[in-house]
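Appendix B. Raw example, untouched.
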Amino acid sequence: NQMTHEMIERVAKILSPQSWQALGTSCDTKAKKKRRETSLDYAKRCILVMREPTDDMIDAAYDGDSLELGSSAYGCWQEMVDQVLK
């Protein structure tokens, strides 16, 4: 899915901007391609960490109302992160 890959690529570019420069040019070496692949893997791991919102995030979003696993907002958050990781 292009949209989910786009988010992973956005994070990867932040993690390793040098490896995303010169795409498709003669300066685009095998080493840079390997670093891009690695940065995509790291990006997925970073996004996975965000799958579980912190209590502070939940409190900020719901004015202090704690969410339980299975609530619609909590589940929606996880579904959005899961979609990015597919």
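End of appendix B.
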